[in-house]
Amino acid sequence: MPIYHQVALNIPLFKLMTYRHDKVLPIGTRVIVPFRGKPKVAFIWESQIKPDIDEEKILPITTVFDNEPRLNKDWIELLEFTSRYYHYPLGASIFTAIPAGMKKSKQLSYPIVDKTFILNKTGLEQKAPSQHHHKLLALWNALALGIKLSAAKNIHARAIHYLNQWQELGYLDEISNHTINVKEGAVKLNEQQFLAYKTICDSLNSFKSFLLFGITGSGKTETYFEVMAEVFSQGKSVLFLLPEINLTEQLLARFAKRFPDISCALLHSRNSDGERTQDYLSALCGQVQLVIGTRLAVFTPIKNLGLIVVDEEHDSSFKQDNELRYHARDLAIWRAKQAQCPIILGSATPSLESFYAAQNKRYQLLSITRRAKENARLPEILIDNVRHQKLTEGLSQRTIELLQQNLKNGGLSLVYLNRRGFAPALFCSDCGYSFSCPNCSAKMVLHRTAHHLRCHHCNHQIPIPAYCPDCGNVDLSAIGFGTQRIEDALKKIFPTARIARVDRDSMSHKNDWQEICNHILERKLDIIVGTQILAKGHDFDQLNLVTVLNADGSLYSADLRARERLFAELMQVSGRAGRDKSAGKVLIQTQLPDNPIFHDLKRQDYISFAQSELNLRHSFRAPPCVYVAACRADAPQLDDAMQFLRDTLQQLTLPENIYTYGPAPQLMVRLSGRERAQIFIESTNRALLHNIINTIANVMQKLAKKRSKIHHVIDIDPIEC
Q1: Which residue, of 165, 221, 416, 682, is most buried by count of CB atoms within 10 Å of its CB?
Q2: How far apart are CA 206 and CA 343, in angstroms?
Q3: What is the third-level CATH fold of 380-423+480-611?
């Protein structure tokens, strides 16, 4: 007699599908089922159900992967919550969360059990690797105490090759039941760090959200490490989330030094599909004690979870902006509650959502108000009014003088401009024509080195034109400044300086960032030109001058969060300076020196800025003081998208305390050839908001069936308002 199961498929439907099998299959088992004539991977979600459709029409499960790890109960609950909260199909949510290897119709093998190696007597008698090969030397030194294979891979990318080589030479022994080695911190915590550490440790084995508000350079990472050491000593696991891939290399080196014998899985987009799948399965099987990753790592199944850390919690990259529009920080909080463990949200510039939650006692605020290194002080911030100045390729005279002085003194300088490319636009000096993207409401950015104009939204590219298509004029001018143009200008002004550019264009290969880091640490650079990649969490002791160009752009934006983002960005990049003994200095070029944001910035007073910004949000009834969802539609023509949203609203009966705004075009109306519009739904009652969104989702789905050219999405807690 057949047994019926409900399975989750990667399809845009808000329901599970029913299939039959001759045996009861455990929940979480990966299977293959026929769907519309094709085999598709699916997951058993419910077993032994009573079907509500004609049993003759129910198709069989064709393949069962019963010899591979199954998804566990906690992971299943996480994905069910994610689907409900973000109003996204369960099957599509699941297939967003799993690695590529689990989406393929091939049998997966259990990950290899982590082995531990140690230098034997013969190995200890050998000469250690040269100091010039610092990673290889670090691996050799770690082997003196014994190290797990997974931890060895975090020290050196080719660890397996060298371990095999040394084992063949008879230098290594494989050992079992190896005790976890957690080294004492090299840096002793100061009073504020210790108080934060002690407060968090007092809440281990129970759920509590901590907002660790520490100024830049205050030693938040060392505080994390001390708490993590306590968690590891209890035999529990840690999930550590970062906003940027580029932060992982520097952090991994610190992890390997502090926790040389902790099994670690590293999950981010630069890993190969095979690496990510194996690390994911290792976590699922309980073979790793530490998972480090960017936002998607929040879905990693981890056994015995004892702590979650979200570093730079304010960063907008924790929010996914397409398909399943989840926020990793918020899901991490839900996971901590599920696991009954504490979560640390760390930042020098907390998001207003987190600061507001701390004010309302939902999070416990822990403050670190001085820098960790004894002689390190916050940098001096100077505001340079360039409104009436004649700039040299975007650089003020004061900026050039400070760079010249720092170069003479042997310091390291950062020139910060959050715009890559050579120039933001190419312009005809005769008729005023400018080159816009045919697919988006944006200008094409000039990339002179690559010899093309590129749209930074849809990546549409064309060769640099030889003449204006409107009037034929060959005198085309580059308007504005990008990192490439600033780099070229600095090379002309300082011909002997060693200059490097750090942006997405220059960091396109896997090892580019590590190479730049090595050059900085080896003092082979004098000036770095960079975008926001450099503003987040990096710690370069010798960096003592930061200059910020074109700081005003966000102040003209209609985006609700523009001021918050600008303040965080400038505070974070300013905090890169003066993190060691040398005094730091920051110069910010602006045409709006009297704007209140620069007064708070000069005093480095986040509390004052956050409080004034929250007062504004209260008066406008805006997040985080209310809960918001955005219902969006796009179509080849804007009128069609707007009409779709109007029709949606007309079919609703809105209860009290629910407010709607729109429909209206989005800030960027045209993207990748489609016109976009949105309505905002808001309420002070979260449950009430989600109830009405359920109704709206059903209405939009029904309307969309009759209008094939319309795409629609729902974005809960949008960050673009």
Answers
A1: 416
A2: 10
A3: Rossmann fold (3.40.50)
Do 114 and 263 contact (CB within 8 A), yes or no? yes
The maximal CA–CA distance of the chain, rounded, in angstroms, is 85
The answer to whether residues 99 and 273 touch, using CB atoms and an 8 Å cutoff, is yes
Q: What are phi and psi of 478, to 5 degrees?
A: -85, 120
Q: Is the pLDDT of residue 541 over 90?
A: no
Higher pLDDT, 592 or 165: 592
The CATH number of the structural domain formed by 627-716 is: 3.30.70.360
Total residue count of the chain as it appears in this document: 721
Task: Find out whether 503 and 512 touch, Cβ atoms under 8 Å.
Answer: no
How many CB atoms neighbour CB 657 within 10 A?
12
Structure tokens at 636: 């080849």
Residue closest to 113 by CA, chosen among 52, 53, 69: 69
DSSP label at 266? E
pLDDT tens digits for range 21-47: 999 999 999 999 999 999 999 999 999
First to last CA, the chain: 55
Q: Each residue of 568-612: pLDDT tens digit? A: 988 888 877 765 666 788 999 999 999 999 999 999 999 999 999
pLDDT at 465: 92
**Phi/psi at 638 (5° precision):** -60, -40
Angle at 515 between CA 510 and CA 521, to 5 degrees: 140
For residue 596, report the phi and psi dihedrals to the nearest 5 degrees: -55, -30
Would the pLDDT of 247 be above 80? no
Share above pLDDT 90 across residues of the chain, in percent, rounded to a whole number: 56
Q: Which residue has the tokens 């108000």?
A: 369
Which residues share a beta bridge with 212?
346, 366
Classify 678 as helix, strand or coil: strand
CB 484 within 8 A of CB 421: yes
Question: How far is residue 598's CA from residue 570's CA, in Å, rounded to a whole number?
Answer: 10
Q: How far apart are CA 142 and CA 423, in angstroms?
A: 48
Residues contacting residue 178 through CB under 8 Å, at least 6 positions apart: 116, 118, 146, 148, 261
CATH code: domain 191-368 is 3.40.50.300
CB 50 within 8 A of CB 72: no
* Beta bridge mates, 346: 212, 311
Distance of alpha carbon 256 from alpha carbon 134, whole angstroms: 13
Q: Do domains 3-97 and 380-423+480-611 have the same CATH topology?
A: no
**pLDDT band for position 178 (cuts 50, 70, 90):** very low
CATH fold group of domain 3-97 = GIY-YIG endonuclease (3.40.1440)
- The whole-number pLDDT of residue 278 equals 85
